[in-house]
Design goal:
This protein is mostly helical and 101 residues long. Helix content is 67%, strand content 0%. It has helices spanning 2-12, 17-24, 28-36, 43-53, 57-60, 76-100. The protein is globular and about 40 Å long. The protein starts with a helix and ends with a helix.
Length: 101
Amino acid sequence: MIDKTIRELREDLGWTQANLAKHLGVTDKAIKNWESGSSKPSFDNAIEIAKLFCVSLDYLAGLEKREPIYVDQLPVKEQRYIRGLLQYYTNMVMNDLKSQK
């Protein structure tokens, strides 16, 4: 389950495997292996993934479900606004994580 969750979280942000690898300090091959299910991230990497995407480890492991928020029915201008806010928040979190290292 973690393989699909990582891929979905990454794709939700429009990131490539290389983008995610850079943020986590691992190789893109590691991301590819995690997403294909041929290997699993270490516990430390799982924690970093959860922090990066602002989800719990339970969610990452498939033990907790989150309710999706659909914006497709909203006007395009409002969709862009909501997505912009989410991207802004994600960038803030990523910058905070970088400053902690």
